UniProtKB/TrEMBL annotation:
This is TRI46 protein. Gene3D superfamilies: 1.20.5.170, 2.60.120.920, 4.10.830.40, Classic Zinc Finger, Immunoglobulins, Zinc/RING finger domain, C3HC4 (zinc finger). Residues 220-261 form the B box-type domain. GO terms for biological process: anterograde synaptic vesicle transport; axonogenesis; microtubule bundle formation; neuron migration. It comes from Vireo altiloquus.
Length: 750
């Protein structure tokens, strides 16, 4: 039983040792200098939070043309003897003394790391081998860096743990040297027992030096300021740097947040402890993420190989097509060549027949010897035709075929350009929202376009969400996927809300970047859809309503000229009125219209249906002293004891301006009126229960004016014209020509 317990204890101890050994082996990566790939020796802390050996940093600066002081210890120190220095120092090209004198006399200075030949002080840039960035070391170069004593201690403990440190020999023994048993921080040397007594005689000041374990790396007792050689006592939060008392009072740290080093120690220790505890408590998550990364590595290897194979097949297909095309073109040239050669060879034979010793000439000479007339005629007839053809060929000689093949030349400039431009397809660039065509009404009509040189997109994804300042977290994005074209309808929105929208494109290379977010405000009330009433009341001589009953234009014509003739005799111009074909009896309603900026005078608003019918029966005057259409009642009435809301509420628009009133009603004699530019669309919102009507800039939904109106009966939208003018009602987004297509319970445009 005891043997089993001993075996279990031994196994546990061995497992613990294995874990410790593995942990130490893994930690070795943190203790290796990125330059020499060896464990740190006198590491310096760079401003970029990385570390590098002092000797390595000096060598890097020397390679970049900077002069550095000797990074080793003082020459009088036993630790600075040639036998204990780094072997890399023997390979370093040290400047000659006469050259150093010339550099110093020329104004080079004594700061380590200053550029050769620099007369004026300049900052030193150090290329960090870890992050591959240039780190600014200031004018002092390496002299401004702190020595990382903590890292040195960790390296020394690590060496002792894995038992790789070699025996330290006494630095004062004559050969053969004895193993060192003591060290002295003041002397920066390691001694055997006899040499320690010899160099620390009794009764001298050196006898008070306290012995330490032998080492080759002697560190100061505390961290010293590189500039003033004083112990650091504070931490500058602004510069994120340890400072001494002298640094603290310098002008460089004026108005900086400086705290005692103890406070900085406690704060950083607490943060580091919490972060380390979080990492240790999340080991399962780390393992899961490592597994996910390893799986991603596998997918990357497989997908990379697949992509290479696809590219190879495509290029091979192109090569095969080119080879096939080459064979076809060469065959065409070969056929043409053979045809021409046959014609030329035939022509040569014809000309050879005309030679004196040719067969045709000899045969003709023999035929001429024939004396029998019938026989001669029979033979000479055929021969004469051949002779005529030969004679014509001789007189009008031209080769039977052209030797040039210029029309078989290929123009491959376009193909070469295509091959030159042959590259991997890119995802679409971020779309640009078209703010001129995008607007909000009953729904959101969103338009966009791709940048000029962007790769094409197969389809788009539109994302939107409602913004709520009171909500603690952001709402999730809603999506309309696979939208064809460059516009989309976004429906089922809340009134009087702000929505943020964005778009991204997709093609074979994947999704591109999102467009910039656009914020759109929905109307303050449900949209009222109506048409202009063309059945009764309006003056058909001066008003023209479109066939779709969505637009109206005032065309005064000849009656306007007659009215202008009577203006000089104090006659009055008439107001032409047109109303909507619906009456509002409850709730809140919103609608919008666009007024032509060149209109002379237009009034948009609402009115009681009964009063509007009376208006049609008795047309009103513009400047009548007895009637003000904006006040809603007879301004000359004697009974003014009861202030009732007006039956009409109109916003006056003219010559591209809107006339606003500082009071509750707008009158033609209001001296406090002011004008604002006419927006592209005017919005009207009627709250029937509250008896209130509001006018908006329908683009930004900025309120322009608000007033009361009598809602004791049905209320109708109304529009008035004085002189020439035009307006049209805002088209519903739902009536756009783009048709909606439903995919997965979501709507998109076809």
């Amino acid at each position: 039983m005891a043997e089993g317990e001993d075996l279990q204890t031994f196994t546990s101890i061995m497992d613990a040792l294995v874990r410790i050994s593995t942990s130490m082996k893994n930690m070795e990566r943190e203790l290796v200098c990125p330059v020499c790939k060896e464990m740190y020796k006198q590491p310096l802390a760079l401003p970029c939070t990385h570390n590098v050996c002092h000797v390595c940093a000096s060598e890097v600066l020397l390679q970049h043309g900077h002069l550095c002081c000797d990074p080793t210890s003082e020459p009088t120190s036993p630790a600075a003897t040639p036998s204990t220095r780094s072997p890399r120092l023997g390979r370093r090209a040290v400047p000659k003394p006469d050259r150093l004198d010339r550099l110093l006399k020329s104004g080079f200075g004594t700061y380590p790391g200053r550029k050769r030949g620099a007369v004026h002080p300049q900052t030193v840039s150090f290329p960090c081998p870890a992050c591959q960035r240039d780190v600014d070391l200031g004018e002092r170069g390496l002299g401004s860096l702190f020595r990382n004593l903590t890292l040195e201690r960790v390296v020394e403990r690590y060496r002792q743990t894995i038992n790789i440190s070699a025996a330290i020999m006494c630095q004062f023994c004559k050969p053969p040297q004895l193993e060192a048993t003591k060290g002295c921080t003041e002397c920066k040397s390691s001694f055997c027992n006899e040499c320690f007594k010899l160099y620390h005689p009794w009764g001298t000041q050196k006898a008070q030096h306290e012995p330490t374990p032998p080492t080759l790396t002697f560190r100061p007792k505390g961290l010293m300021c590189p500039e003033h050689k004083e112990e650091v006592t504070h931490y500058c939060k602004t510069c994120q740097r340890l400072v001494c008392q002298l640094c603290r009072v310098r002008r460089t740290h004026t108005s900086h947040k400086i705290t005692p080093v103890l406070s900085a120690y406690q704060a950083l220790r607490e943060k580091l402890t919490k972060s380390l505890a979080y990492i240790l408590s999340s080991q399962d998550t780390v393992q899961t993420q490592i597994a996910e990364l390893e799986e991603t590595v596998k997918h990357t290897e497989v997908n990379g190989s697949q992509a290479k194979e696809e590219v190879s097949q495509l290029i091979q297909g192109l090569c095969a097509m080119l080879e096939e095309k080459r064979a076809t073109l060469l065959q065409a040239i070969e056929e043409c060549q053979q045809e021409r050669l046959a014609s030329l060879h035939g022509q040569i034979r014809e000309h050879q027949a005309m030679l004196e010793n040719s067969g045709m000439v000899g045969y003709a000479q023999e035929v001429l010897k024939e004396t029998d007339h019938p026989c001669f005629v029979q033979a000479a007839k055929q021969l004469h035709n051949r002779i005529l053809r030969a004679t014509d060929s001789l007189q009008s000689f031209r080769p039977a075929a052209n030797a040039s093949f210029s029309h078989f030349q290929l123009d491959v400039s376009r193909e070469l350009k295509l091959l030159t431009d042959l590259a991997f397809i890119r995802a679409p660039e971020a779309p640009v929202i078209d703010t001129q065509r995008t607007y909000t009404y009953d729904q959101i009509f969103l338009c966009w376009r791709l940048p000029q040189h962007s790769p094409p997109a197969w389809h788009y994804t539109v994302e939107f969400r409602k913004t709520d300042a009171k909500a603690k977290g952001l709402k999730l994005w809603q999506r309309r996927e696979e939208v064809r074209g460059t516009c989309a309808l976004v429906e089922y929105l809340d009134t009087d809300s702000v929505y943020v929208l964005r778009v991204k494109g997709y093609n074979k290379a994947g999704f591109g970047d999102y467009s910039e977010d656009i914020y759109l405000h929905t109307p303050p009330a449900p949209v009222l859809n109506f048409f202009l009433d063309n059945r009764w009341g309006f003056n058909r001589d001066r008003l023209a309503i479109s066939k779709d009953q969505r637009a109206v234009r005032s065309v005064p014509g000849i009656p306007m000229l007659f009215a202008a003739e009577r203006l000089m005799t104090s006659c009055h111009l008439s107001i032409d009125l047109v109303i909507g074909d619906v009456a509002i009896t409850q709730g809140k309603s919103y609608w919008a219209c666009c007024v032509d900026p060149s209109s002379y005078l237009v009034k948009v608003g609402v009115g009681l249906e009964s009063k509007l019918q009376e208006w049609f029966q008795v047309p009103q005057d513009v400047v009548s002293p007895r009637y003000d259409p904006d006040s809603g009642h007879d301004s000359g009435a004697e009974d003014t004891t009861v202030e009732a809301p007006p039956p009409y509420a109109f916003l006056t628009i003219g010559m591209g301006k809107i006339l606003l009133s500082h009071g509750s009603a707008l009158t033609s004699r209001d001296p406090n009126g002011c004008t604002v530019p006419l927006p592209p669309r005017i919005g009207i919102c009627l709250d029937y229960e509250q008896g209130k009507v509001s006018f908006y800039d329908a683009v930004s939904f900025r309120e322009l004016w608000e007033c009361g109106v009598d809602c004791s009966g049905p209320v109708c939208p109304a529009f008035c014209f004085i002189g020439g003018g035009a307006l049209h009602l805002q088209e519903l987004v739902a009536n756009k020509q783009e048709r909606k297509v439903t995919i997965g319970n979501f709507a998109k445009l076809d």
